[in-house]
Structure formats: structure tokens, C-alpha cells
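Figure 6 in text form: structure in, sequence out.
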């Protein structure tokens, strides 16, 4: 959440009053003077002080959810259940949204938060956030497949994908499975990459996003990030 918005919600006055607090060098984040109100902060993860007093107001929440097949990565949808619908009413907050998206028929890890700027930074190309998927396909992944994906793939429409890491788990003429790691998220990218190789994805599940792991979380379930996982988010704040 933006620092000025956080201070306003915490009862430090109007927007102008909060600006004056910051300009008068009364606000610190992790010991450093706050220079602007648009700084993205989280009082769960950082020590924020106003005139030497610690701020205890913590409105931001972070959930790791295992999206089931058929659920859409959206806040609202007229036709389909959304990832937000899977969050219990008691755990919902104003502004809750999914970070990034998964296709409706793709399962797996998705982060849910109400920290708006955080999602933008997690998805920004400069951070090169990696995403790993478990994929099943309807044909052979031959020994040349890792190099094919590792060289980057150009689609027929001219779109060029960055190199991806493919690790074959098992392979046969009619069924193969693998882990694939990418650092971008173009529309239907993974499915199109496998099609470019000559096989079709029949099942896809995201198992990791940045440093976060899906683990054994059942489909449709979610949990709060652990303290250690929240610490990993600090690099995307500010």
C-alpha cells in the first residue's frame, strides 16, 4: 500500500496532513526517512515510525491459493467462479485481487493480495520473476526438446518468447510430462510453445512463482504466507 494511503487509514489525518508529516521528515521506513508518499510499504514487513512512534496498523494481506481448473483469475466474473470467490468472507479485504493470471483450465499457484502496487512490481520485467509449471502433453518430448525451448521460440504471428528451461520427467510417443520454467507471461504462452514443438498440452499446473512454492496445498484451498515468505516480498516493495 502507498505510504500516504496507509497513514491516512491509520488515522494520521487528511492527505494534506499526511504530506506535511512526510515533508517534515517525521516518517521513517526501516529507519530511513520517507522521501515521498507514493512509496509502496507494508507495516507487516517493515518498521514504520511516525514522530518516533511505531505504526501498528496492518491492512495488507497475502494469500497463496491453489487455483482449480474452471476457476478464473479475476476479481469478478458473470459466468464463472473466480479466485476471489474461493476466499472465505472473513478473510476478504477491500481491494483483494490476484497477482497475474492463469488460464481457466490451468491449475496451480496464484498469489492473492490487496497490496495493489506489489502485484505490478512482481510482474514487472525488470525483476525477471520465474514461474515453473508441471505440464503433460500428448506426444513425445525427445532429447532435443530442452534445447528447442532453451533457444527461445518464435510463433507464427511474430511473437518471440524468451528462452525457457525444460526438464523432461518422462517421455513416450503418446504421453510425456515435464517441468517448464519461464520468466514472462504471454497469452497462452506455454501451450503455444509446446504446440510449436509439435505436441499439445493436456494438463498444466503452476507449481512455483518467484520464490513461492505450491507444495501439497489441495486445489481450491489457500493459506496466508508464512513470516519467511513475507520477508521475501520486501525486495518488491518501495
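Output sequence:
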Amino acid at each position: 500500500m502507498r505510504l500516504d494511503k496507509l497513514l491516512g487509514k491509520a488515522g494520521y489525518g487528511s492527505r494534506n496532513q499526511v504530506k506535511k508529516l512526510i515533508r517534515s521528515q517525521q516518517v521513517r521506513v526501516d529507519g530511513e526517512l520517507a522521501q515521498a508518499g507514493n512509496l509502496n510499504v507494508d507495516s507487516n514487513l517493515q518498521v514504520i515510525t511516525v514522530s518516533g512512534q511505531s505504526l501498528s496498523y496492518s491492512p495488507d494481506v497475502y494469500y497463496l491459493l491453489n487455483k482449480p481448473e474452471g476457476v478464473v483469475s479475476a476479481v469478478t466474473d458473470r459466468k464463472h467462479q473466480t479466485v476471489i470467490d474461493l476466499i472465505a468472507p472473513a478473510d476478504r479485504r477491500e481491494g483483494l485481487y490476484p497477482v497475474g493470471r492463469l488460464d481457466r483450465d490451468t491449475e496451480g499457484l496464484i498469489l492473492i493480495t490487496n497490496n495493489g502496487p506489489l502485484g505490478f512490481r512482481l510482474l514487472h520485467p525488470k525483476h525477471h520473476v520465474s514461474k515453473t509449471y508441471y505440464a503433460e502433453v500428448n506426444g513425445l518430448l525427445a532429447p532435443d526438446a530442452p534445447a528447442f525451448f532453451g533457444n527461445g521460440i518464435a510463433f507464427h504471428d511474430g511473437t518471440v518468447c524468451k528462452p525457457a528451461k525444460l526438464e523432461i520427467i518422462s517421455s513416450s510417443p503418446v504421453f510425456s510430462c515435464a517441468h517448464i520454467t519461464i520468466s514472462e507471461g504471454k497469452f497462452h504462452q506455454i501451450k503455444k510453445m509446446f504446440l510449436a514443438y509439435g505436441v499439445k498440452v493436456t494438463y498444466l499446473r503452476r507449481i512455483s512463482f518467484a520464490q513461492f512454492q505450491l507444495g501439497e496445498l489441495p486445489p481450491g484451498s489457500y493459506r496466508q504466507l508464512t513470516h519467511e515468505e513475507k520477508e521475501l516480498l520486501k525486495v518488491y516493495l518501495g
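Caption detail: Residues 97 and 112 are 6 Å apart (CA to CA).
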